[in-house]
UniProtKB/TrEMBL annotation:
Keyword Methyltransferase applies: yes
Signal peptide: none
UniProt GO molecular function: methyltransferase activity
Keyword terms, alphabetized: Methyltransferase, Transferase
CDD domains: AdoMet_MTases, DPM_DPG-synthase_like
InterPro entries reported for this sequence: Glyco_trans_2-like (IPR001173), Glycosyltransferase_2 (IPR050256), Nucleotide-diphossugar_trans (IPR029044), SAM-dependent_MTases_sf (IPR029063)
Glycosyltransferase 2-like domain ranges (all copies): 266-419
Lineage: Bacteria, Pseudomonadati, Myxococcota, Polyangia, Polyangiales
UniProt superkingdom: Bacteria
The UniProt record lists the keyword Methyltransferase: yes
Protein name as it appears in the record: Methyltransferase domain-containing protein
GO BP term (any one): methylation
PANTHER family: RFBJ PROTEIN, UNDECAPRENYL-PHOSPHATE 4-DEOXY-4-FORMAMIDO-L-ARABINOSE TRANSFERASE-RELATED
Amino acid sequence: MTADGTSTAEGATNTKYVVEEQNMALVGAIGRPRRVLDVGCGVGLNGEAAKKRGAHVTGIEIVPASIDRAKERLDEVLAIDVTSDEAVTKGLAGRSFDLLLFADMLEHVADPIAVIRRLLPYLEDGGHVIVSLPNVAAWTVRLGLLAGKFVYTQSGILDDSHLRFFTRETGRQMLERAGLEVLRLEQNPMLVRAAKDVVLSAQRAVAPGGTPDPESLRKSLPYKLYQGLVRPVEDVVAARAPELLSFQNVYVARKPPKARKLSLTVGMLTMNEEDSIEAMMGEIRRVAPDAKILCVDSSTDRTPEIAARLGARVLRQLPPRGHGPAMELLMYSAAAESDLLIYLDCDFTYPADYIPVLRRIVEEEGVDVVNCARTRTRPAAMPLPNYLANRSFAALAHVMHGIPTCDVHSGMRAYRSSMMRAFDFDGEGDALPIDTLLFPAKCGYRVVEMPIDYQERVGQSKLRKIAGTVWTMIRLVNALPVGQRGSSRYELR
């Protein structure tokens, strides 16, 4: 497409009206990355969503009018021809990213695999790639073919500037051939959108000069009502038959992580741990002398002062907001500065001697989460009601989600940081460990569950049993639409 928006396709003479809107499925999969490269960023709506989550977003765009608008939304916009090795090398020299976005861009190039491979050197190990591709097998196209029609249009699946066409499966194959590991697939539905020609014709009719603002539809009240009331229903319906009912297939993939030494943060949530913090930090230093220690603290005693004096980074959360918000802060603070987080309680219920074991599993085996299960058998240090409650919650997770865990509330886990940044975990309320176990397991990441000794605690328990039970049920239900039921990559040891 030329800079003034006219089509270069043979025989096309009309001005192309491009509707600018966020790609909802793609934006929903962004997570909380640190540095994003938005390839073919358009006016920057998708990259803007990543920026609002704290990322530094660099856009690539070649249409001058789009560049001007994108610069108002993104941190920077580069005019780079991604089909040229020389242009990419010159434009991205010295840069690295943990997320690449390709929102309806790869179908416009003759060799999409070459474009992906050209940009992968600038993606860090384990970094993610999110790709949106129009679905040429959508029901509207199939009906046209039954009638003997395959007519190019000025926008949509059969856009006259598309050089390549993809089904759900051929899109996956293309990404795998480019060297990516495809983790999960999402979709934007092709239901209400089938009436787009009628809507756009109406917009042209009422627009001054017959040329609507490309963003006017997105800003309109009917569109906002559609997104809030109708779109959630469409998503449920389209998920039943995505090959047929998807307008766009959205792929979440990553650069496969390599076996290597990872920088480590050992994290703890501390609240009045004065009796144990010094000894606990000594144990951590003994088994992981190179690790950073991070405490999210809500204490009223001397715990934070002791931890800081011994070299820990202490983030104060006062007044206390509960386990979920504290864990959310811990996870994303660790993910911003280290490759790996190992979390454990500060009360000696989980032995620090397991830290090197968890670290080795992630570093050498490419595992994303290690869940330390206390409840394969009942530990002597755990009261019977607590044991039965934990096993009941695990059984519910198995029935509802197909994940064969026996401990959804473990207080010791290892998390690969690139995996954590791929999700936007919401810590509001209790029972966040439900999400941080089930989401990765259902979304294609490799999870290992191993038994661990559970010991008598030092100090008082901070467990909120009623609130924890209520939030456990809420999170088990809320996790139902995430990813796919079951996981072939959940390993019990």
